[in-house]
Amino acid sequence: MLGDGVRAAGDVGMYAQNFLLSLTARGFHGIPQAIISFYADTVRESLGVPGDLKLLFGIAFGTADPVSPLKSLDLDKVPYEHSVVFHDDPCV
User: Fold this and answer.
1) Cα 36 to Cα 80: distance, rounded to the nearest angstrom
2) What's the rounded Cα separation, in Å, for the pair 65 and 43?
3) Which residues contact 56 (CB under 8 A, 6 or more apart)?
4) Which of helix, strand or coil describes residue 13?
5) What is the pTM of this model?
6) Rounded to whole angstroms, what are the CA distances from 62 to 12, 24, 29?
């Protein structure tokens, strides 16, 4: 691969975004999971992926279970004011 791989990672991210959107358009759901990159050897062994390929993330996909007990979870959400900072915009 040429360069430092940053552009390639960006391309993969854009591809993944379009893949997730195409799943939604077809009635499926997807969840990108970067944590599996920490288990690259296990994934390679399980799926037969050559060792010279880098594992950036995976995408689990399928259909949602409409009666899953997870749908009834009532989680408190942090107000956005606790995690978002608005700055004065001199252009406005």
Assistant:
1) 29
2) 26
3) 9, 12, 34, 37
4) helix
5) 0.64
6) 20, 10, 6
